[in-house]
Structures are given as structure tokens and as C-alpha cells.
Write a structure and sequence with these properties.
Layout lengths: L2 H10 L2 H29 L6 H8 L7 H31 L6 H10 L9 H11 L5 H24 L4 H9 L4 H12 L1 H17 L2 H6 L8 H11 L4 H31 L9
Helix pairs in contact: 2-13, 3-13, 4-7, 4-10, 4-13, 5-7, 7-10, 8-9, 10-13, 12-13
């Protein structure tokens, strides 16, 4: 590891902070793994892996598991694109640029963290109704992004403040404007925060039940969170149906697991990439 990489790793987080973070993640993983193990064990009762096969060959209530995967992925992609685009630009403005009223504007942006999602249902309903966004992926992604952006701004601003000033000054001396500095310097250095924010957007979209329930009326557009509830009401109380329901829980959790595993791989491998010029 080069001297620049070592410096940047220390700027991002100390060794003690990383150990604490990994310990917290391990404890959270254990809490998550237990119900997942219970669902997996119950899903294999009665008919074993046939419980999984029948969910694809004999959909319950017209709910297609692959279609819920697609619906959830598209909503999560739109959600992440909106949040990352706005948050990275705002993070650059609040952490790198110097302008009058910056701290006041940042404090006002943080005030939106205190607004509960339930308080946004009526205005979001009116806006989506006026724009004709019912039964559309964008109609769900927009209110999700509106709730997530204040957190994203906070994350990117705090991470951006750890970007070495020498790197930014070197880019400015080379004649780079703000757009070039943002694209070629700020974003590569903030890659861990961007990846983390993207993962969180996908995970929050996966577990979001409220907004899809408000704006998605067609069964073919149901997300994974909606499908869990629909399958619960569509299946009976027989041992076979209970096993199939637990199999659906496992299947619908697969996207979240893949997102986290895929994202962690790139967080670790890209932690120090694009740090500085030698």
C-alpha cells in the first residue's frame, strides 16, 4: 500500500473506528441471521425444495417472484440515482465550496430529517395525482428519495470534509474548474460513501411497504415488501402453505443479501482507489 493510500485510509476512518464498525455489523448480522435461519428451516418442511419451485410454477394470487424482483430493482435504481445525484452535488457544495450562508443552509437541510414519512403522504399523493405518476416506478421512487436525500446530504458532507485539501488545491492549480474537480477528484475520493449510500437506498427500497402500497395498485407492479403481505393473505394455514410462505420470505430476502454482499466487496476494494496522483 502506498503512502498516499495509507494517508487516505487514515482520513476516512481510524483503525479503532473500523474495528468498532465491524463489531457492530457482526452483531447486527447475527440478529438478522437468526430469523433468516428460522425461515429457511421452516421453508424446507413438508415438501423440501419443492416449496420454492411451486412459487415460480404456481404463483399465489398472480404474484410472480421474478416480477417482484424486477419491480423492486427498478424502484431501488431510481431511488438511488435521485439520492446519489442530489446528495453528492450538495455534499460538494457544503464541504468544499465556501459561500455565505453555507452553514445555515446545511442546518436547514438537516431539518428535513425530522419530518416523518407519514406526514408526506397527503402532499405526495396530491403531487403524484397531478403528475399522473400512480402505478409507475417513479411515483414510488420520488417520495422515497425525498425522505432519503437529507440523510444523503449529511453523509456526503461529513465524508467530503475528510477529503485532503491538498488534492483539491492541486486540481485547482492544474486549472480544473468546479465541475472537473467534482467529477474527477471529489467523487473518486468519496467512492466509499457513494457506494454506502447506494446500498442503503436499495435496502430501504426493498423494505419499503408504505409508498408502494399508496401508489402501486396493479398486482404486476408489486414490490418485494408488498409481495410478502400479499402472499401472507393469499396462502392458508396448512403446513404446506406455511412452508411456501417461509420459502417466499427467503426468496424475497435474496435481493437484499446480494445488494449488501456486492456492495461490501466494492467498498473494501475501492476504499483507496483514485486517491491522489503520484
Amino acid at each position: 500500500m502506498s503512502r498516499h493510500e495509507t494517508t487516505l485510509r487514515g482520513a476516512v476512518t481510524s483503525a479503532r473506528d473500523r474495528r468498532i464498525m465491524y463489531a457492530v455489523l457482526a452483531v447486527m448480522g447475527l440478529f438478522w441471521a437468526f430469523p433468516m435461519y428460522a425461515a429457511l428451516r421452516k421453508s424446507l418442511e413438508v415438501h423440501g425444495f419443492d416449496n420454492y419451485v411451486t412459487l415460480f410454477t404456481d404463483p399465489v394470487g398472480g404474484i410472480s417472484i421474478p416480477q417482484t424482483y424486477l419491480n423492486t430493482f427498478v424502484v431501488g435504481l431510481l431511488h438511488a440515482a435521485l439520492v446519489v445525484s442530489v446528495s453528492t452535488a450538495a455534499g460538494y457544495a457544503f464541504s468544499v465550496l465556501v459561500w455565505r450562508g453555507r452553514e445555515l443552509a446545511f442546518s436547514l437541510a438537516l431539518l428535513f430529517l425530522a419530518i416523518p414519512a407519514a406526514a408526506m403522504i397527503v402532499p405526495a399523493y396530491r403531487i403524484n395525482n397531478e403528475l399522473g405518476l400512480f402505478d409507475s416506478y417513479l411515483g414510488v421512487a420520488l417520495p422515497e428519495a425525498a425522505i432519503t436525500i437529507p440523510f444523503g446530504v449529511l453523509l456526503m458532507r461529513n465524508f467530503g470534509r475528510n477529503v485532503p485539501a491538498a488534492v483539491l488545491e492541486a486540481a485547482a492549480l492544474d486549472g480544473a474548474g468546479h465541475l472537473r474537480v467534482f467529477r474527477s477528484v471529489f467523487l473518486p475520493l468519496c467512492r466509499p460513501a457513494v457506494v454506502n449510500l447506494t446500498i442503503l437506498c436499495f435496502v430501504w427500497s426493498l423494505q419499503d411497504f408504505m409508498w408502494p402500497s399508496v401508489f402501486l395498485r396493479k398486482t404486476s407492479l408489486q414490490t418485494a415488501a408488498q409481495a410478502v403481505m400479499s402472499l401472507n393473505t393469499g396462502l392458508g394455514a396448512s403446513p404446506t402453505d406455511i412452508a411456501r410462505y417461509n420459502a417466499s420470505l427467503v426468496l424475497l430476502a435474496v435481493p437484499a443479501v446480494l445488494v449488501v454482499v456486492f456492495g461490501m466487496r466494492y467498498i473494501i476494494s475501492g476504499l483507496t482507489s483514485g486517491a491522489t496522483k503520484e
